[in-house]
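Before relying on records like the one below, remember that each one covers exactly one chain. Contacts with other chains, cofactors or solvent are not represented anywhere in the record.
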Amino acid sequence: MKNGEKKQRVLFLCTGNSCRSQMAEGWLRHLADDRFDVSSAGTQPVGLNPGAVEAMQELRIDISGHRSKHLQEFLNQRFDHVITVCDRAKESCPLFPGASSTLHWSFDDPASAQGPPEARRAVFRRVRDEIAERIRRFIRDGA
């Protein structure tokens, strides 16, 4: 970041703030260094999902210190970008008048994956990688 430039503020939203928004927050912090002030929240937070922590840790990105936060914590704050990462959050997302962009990126919910543990881990990895690609495009295209 150049001297005098203000960090862009990004808020990732999903329903539970347990998987997708947490991974998006972790990816943006990891890939963009200090260019962004990034947060995540949920419309109905349920706690950090261990599967999300494990999937990110496989790539040496530590989100274990994140906490699940309610959207209410951020309602009076200004963001440059508000990004919903699940359809239910998009439907219930309040307006953020100061946001220069409101984006919607729909990802499958890895927390709802069924089957044996390895099959569930594979879903977490796939969603993690899809989020990473979207974050890379977001950074590359100038946010």
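Residues 117-140 form the longest helix (24 residues).
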